[in-house]
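User: Show me a protein chain along with its predicted structure.
Assistant: Here is one chain, sequence first, then structure tokens.
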Amino acid sequence: MPRKPPKGLPTRQQILDFIEQSGQPAGKREIARAFGLHSHDKILLKALLKDMADEGLIDSAPGRAFHKAGGVPRVTVLRVVSVDDGQVWAQPESWHADTPPPKLRVIERARRSALALNDRILARTEEAGKGHVAHVMKKLQRSAELVLGVVRREGDRFYLTPVDKKEKRELPISELKEAQEGDLVLAEPSGRPPRVTARVDAILGDPFAPRSFSLIAIHKYGLRDEFRTEAMVEARHVARQQLSDDREDLTHLPIVAIDPEDARDHDDAIWASPRDDGDGWDAIVAIADVSFYVRPGSELDREARARGNSVYFPDRVVPMLPHELSSDICSLKEGEVRAAMACHLHVGKDGALKSWRFSRAKICIAANIAYENAQAAMDAASEQVIENASSPCSMPPLEGRVPRELVEKALKPLWACWRALLAARERREPLELDLPERRVMLDEKGRILSVAPRERLDAHRLVEDYMIAANVAAAKALEKKKAPVMYRVHEAPGREKLVALKDYLATFDLEFALGQVIRPATFNRILERIGDDHDARPEIMEQVLRTQMQARYSPEPLGHFGLALASYAHFTSPIRRYADLLVHRALVGDLAKEDADSLVEIGEHISMLERRAMEAERETIDRYVAAFLADKVGQIMRCRITGVQPFGFFATVEDLGGDGLVPAAILGNEYYRYDEAARALVGEETGETYRVGQHLELKLVEANPASGALRFELPEGKFGGAPRLGQRRDRVRTGKRGRPANIRHQGRRR
């Protein structure tokens, strides 16, 4: 017999009526709120809902919402099962009732995103007549449900080993298709825990081939690596547009583009000249006029917004815009007339921006110069060893040297103006963290030649400071005309992170006062106090970086803490960043009203896409590093400890990167205490310590290119090294919850 609801609770029928009539998913919280239940009544409601589920009156949907048993949840995931004359029908992806799953007629808000067979959608459902209709809320990427892994064989059975190093479990493969042992595949999980299996969906090839490493990231993060046909057709059409005569003609100026030697696109160029009145310099930062080709509401615009930014891998780029734009008509190439947005700056003798204006222009780049060549030319100019050349618009292949005329007319004025900008930057005291960027060099077949930190040159700083000046001018120009601004926001660190930094610095006997006004210079002083040669400098820099908030895009003028700037927008890379494209449109008065009204949502969207791109790029570099080290397994590496946990410590190979684990269980025949404050493992008998920032030699025992994971051991003969074959390690055992029993935890709880 079903229990009667206690006094004050709704009846079973009232709950059923509420669930059916609710316009949103109805979980326990929503039911309690609807009937005004509090404290103890909520406990009784939970029991009542369990009774109703046991009686077959209600079922639970994803997110712990309820729906009538045998019915369809208000919000649920559907899979398209048929497309007939444009009419789409779908069924619930999960259906646990005894009756066959119902078919729902799908109603799409926009025809441009036509659904295909087997597509998955998140939909809001409602009854219509004797059936249901589904309103599409979001189309779900197939990659969001597929698992990327390598096929492993064990006897007659096959298993999927995920490439994500955070995922430890393997899945039995129920449908292999044409895949073979060792293949990299995309597979669809099926079933419910604990009986989950995988069906192979696509075979991607050899996981250890260098060009597979970026492919793994593309599939793992659901990056759009192919453009829709409509966008490709539109790109070819707009690329043929002619430039109008009303553009400001700057083709006579020796404007140069200074980029990385391996740059895939060139969207910025610079020029400077001393002013005739002696009051500093005139400078121009010319940026590809992408907004001329990519109009609001176009197919190209929709594609660019969906991507948010370009993603750069060692072997390829996943561009925000099709090739016809990103690496052709919008790429500023030597000797080619191009459409540009020109930021005209008056830079004072002290480096301050005294005035600015923006114009649509046409330019002709005098030369595309690699950073290294520009730096070498200026270094040589100081020694007056410059190669003669007659044309300022060519780059003679003379060991990468820049023509004398171009050095005199373009580079020297740029450097002179930059020294003023640099002086202004130093007065402003932005955050100065010298964290190396890894560069992977490949040969023509995609094989790894080297992995090394990128050299940081004055030429890099020069271009960076001109770009910062243009970004500041763009934000201020839009503020002056009271136009919407998509700011690049970087807020000051929160108190919780500052407290953690204070505790951390105390382990180095460095004081950090929480009551002071925190500025970027505050962190610079910390680094100055420890000096350039301190072993812990890289570690402390990384901790200071972790203390910072994550930069994002927002229409709120919250300033850029790291650069010590009150107004800052991204203007300089519209080929590869959607935020910059919005800023360009606002500057020329072409920002669509619906976009201006939705800048908060757009900012959140492109910030998320930027973080996804950074993770994909970083993981791919880790895979290349693992592949580079794969033939060095067994060798001794110079490493630095980057993280310590109760179960062991992580170390990175110096000058290469790529973290690997040293399990605590192999550290020695004694108890190791985890000191959370000091971020260290300390041997209770010997005092042997492994702490963050420590330099040591480790033996590389595993390098997995598919996952990017490394594993190290202490070298033979070192204290705590791995036991010899047959030697018993009685004091190393696994305790409860997987924690090694020889580790004790000290410090505050997380």
